[in-house]
Amino acid sequence: MLDLTKLTTETRNERTMNLDCMTPLEIATIMNKEDEMVVAAVKEVLPQVATVIEWCTNSLKNSGRIIYMGAGTSGRLGLLDAVECPPTFGTSPEMVVGLIAGGSGAFIKAVEGAEDSTTLGVEDLKKLNLNKNDIVIGIAASGRTPYVIAALKYARELGCKTAVLVCNRNSEMAKHADIAIEPVSGPEVLTGSTRLKSGTAQKMILNMISTGSMVGIGKAYQNLMVDVMQTNMKLVSRAENIIISATDCDRETAKETLEIAEGSAKLAITMILLQCSKEEAIERLNHSHGHIRYALENK
């Protein structure tokens, strides 16, 4: 019989013992109060988060990938972070990958028993042709998911960097990773419902990892998302606004330069700020590994 009683995420919260008697406002208020603990818990693990950001950045610079792995809520959060990278940062879908126990269909409907498999995680990584330049990040509130543990073991055998994002300390998963990020925000408002505080902590940290990594490889100039994909009218307008904000040009110039740059806001910004041709801007960006700021400093 699996013993979960020692896990912080599974213990009862003394402050919500009368949850079923609370008014809607009282429920909202106590949940809001409990969420304050998430911010504090995440703050405590920022050094570990920073290390993982650095490792992820290095992986991406070496043509590696960020691979998130989890089950249930944790797997869904990894998938969510991964699928947001292409539209936000203009990455290929293969650069940041989310794997969930039971396959993509498990995002909508749980696949019974998948998280307890000691073979599916390895199989999923083999399908991706995992290599030593990749980094594998296991996500689990409990820190005991067999699907993830087996995958971490396999990744380390290949020489990959590995990390875990777990909401309990001294977890089994942490024993099989190079680094453990362990934000512990206390028992859940609803006992064992780790989609609440644990899920919020995981989402916050995944935001940091993906955003920090993308900034590290030149996907931002100042605080602007200069590689944003223009897949709808709103994003076309956003790209123009980004160019205007970065260069202080008028909208007509932004539109014209964006067209010449074939939709690349990054390239358009570089052309305007350096007052150079498209070809020279491309050369400068290649030389600066995609960082606009470095391209400007080397003019």
UniProtKB/TrEMBL annotation:
A Pfam family that the UniProt record links to this protein: GKRP_SIS_N
Catalytic center residues: E84, E115
Keyword presence, Coiled coil: no
Cited SUPFAM superfamilies: SIS domain
Lyase keyword on record: yes
InterPro entries hit by this protein: Etherase_MurQ, Glucokinase_regulatory_CS, MURQ/GCKR, SIS_dom, SIS_dom_sf
Record key words, sorted: Carbohydrate metabolism, Lyase
Domain of life: Bacteria
Pathway recorded for this protein: Cell wall biogenesis; Amino-sugar metabolism; N-acetylmuramate degradation; Amino-sugar metabolism; 1,6-anhydro-N-acetylmuramate degradation
Its EC number(s): 4.2.1.126
GO biological process entries: amino sugar catabolic process; N-acetylmuramic acid catabolic process; peptidoglycan turnover
GO terms of molecular function: carbohydrate derivative binding; carbon-oxygen lyase activity; ether hydrolase activity
Catalytic activity, as annotated: N-acetyl-D-muramate 6-phosphate + H2O = N-acetyl-D-glucosamine 6-phosphate + (R)-lactate
Record domain SIS: where: 56-219
Family indicated by similarity: Belongs to the GCKR-like family. MurNAc-6-P etherase subfamily.
Record function comment: Specifically catalyzes the cleavage of the D-lactyl ether substituent of MurNAc 6-phosphate, producing GlcNAc 6-phosphate and D-lactate.
Remaining remarks: A lyase-type mechanism (elimination/hydration) is suggested for the cleavage of the lactyl ether bond of MurNAc 6-phosphate, with the formation of an alpha,beta-unsaturated aldehyde intermediate with (E)-stereochemistry, followed by the syn addition of water to give product.
Quaternary structure annotation from Swiss-Prot or TrEMBL: Homodimer.
Name the record gives this protein: N-acetylmuramic acid 6-phosphate etherase
